[in-house]
Amino acid sequence: MFSQTVEYALRAIVHLADNSPNPCTTEQIAKATKVPQAYLSKVLQSLRQSNVVHSQRGIGGGISLVKTPDELNLLEVVNAVDPICRITSCPLGLKGHGTNLCPLHRKLDEAMRVTEHAFSETTLAEILASSTSSYPLCNEPEDRLTILREPAKPPAK
Asked: Which CATH number fits domain 4-147: 1.10.10.10, 3.30.70.360, 3.40.630.10, 1.10.3720.10?
């Protein structure tokens, strides 16, 4: 139902929320989220253009969230990279249907509405605080600590 771009954006944002307010490099995010770095750069660019993340060059720089994890919801992230498209008129262009959707398209639009609502009501802080035996993006808590401790490699000259 969601594109790979949405999946990658959500992984990156969860990682940034987990490290908030500390910035992370693209390399650190890519490693932690298992997203190809080149693809991640494009995703982060979309997130920057939508004012979801901020980037700072130089020492101590990196990518960070514009809002706190309590303020940022999943829908904002999704809409920044691949918005949920609601069905407002017949996708087949049938004149007799217009905005009066058939039962199939009405049901599909309802599913999108429910998803849109659920995402708008779910903050990143809630994702991180969810009680479960698995931690977002890691196999074990030790993996998370390893990722957080590893310094970024200096840029190649």
From this structure: 1.10.10.10
